[in-house]
Amino acid sequence: xxxxxxxxxxxxxxxxxxxxxxxxxxxxxxxxxxxxxxxxxxxxxxxxxxxxxxxxxxxxxxxxxxxxxxxxxxxxxxxxxxxxxxxxxxxxxxxxxxxxxxxxxxxxxxxxxxxxxxxxxxxxxxxxxxxxxxxxxxxxxxxxxxxxxxxxxxxxxxxxxxxxxxxxxxxxxxxxxxxxxxxxxxxxxxxxxxxxxxxxxxxxxxxxxxxxxxxxxxxxxxxxxxxxxxxxxxxxxxxxxxxxxxxxxxxxxxxxxxxxxxxxxxx
Length: 267
Description:
Blueprint: E1 2-5, H1 10-21, E2 28-36, H2 38-43, E3 48-52, E4 56-59, H3 70-95, H4 99-107, E5 110-113, H5 114-120, E6 125-127, H6 146-151, H7 155-160, H8 168-192, H9 199-204, H10 209-245, H11 251-260
Parallel strand pairs: 1-2, 2-3, 2-4, 3-6
Antiparallel strand pairs: 4-5
Organism: Magnetofaba australis IT-1
Pfam family, one: CLP_protease
Protein name: Putative protease/scaffold protein
């Protein structure tokens, strides 16, 4: 698999990483230029990771976009912490570094040269340098190396390359937009259902909007059925209590009392 990417959706990237790890085949990853952000996590799925001497790997903390209440913000922060734990695991399994070392590398938004990536265990061996033909906008990153930016072709030049047939930035923009729309839709569904706290668990499971609606409808139906059963049980219990409280009529005693009374004309 060949990677040359500035990153993208963390959920999509983790799904790709996990799919590669499940393959019953040897996976060789070539980092042709840049493997930044979640693209570096995908690279960690390789049994062997090969980097040209002028390629780079970038590792940083996950980030997210959320709109809503303070509770929504706290929920997103919690989700990011859980997501980070998954990323740390991927880096640790490949490099053998401790969690503390990896977390420090992530917190600093660390750009690693190919040599540094090999030294730290994120890559296995080097190759001859290659010409970078794809254009990436690295302005979103805080610590992008100036020498890397200088090596990248200008945007117009990159688009004129005959082999550059995939607009990676456009794809990334589409993925980001789709992810944001998905997150907002799940939040809206849960808010309308009166269970806003359920949104992030659904998002973490990557459940579709249709599946979320079906799950909430089923839960509502189950709860309504339980309520009806409890109501009927309560009504039966109340009826039984009322009936037991009613005075009983002893017919034998009534007839005995009547027979004991003197009849008409008797003294």
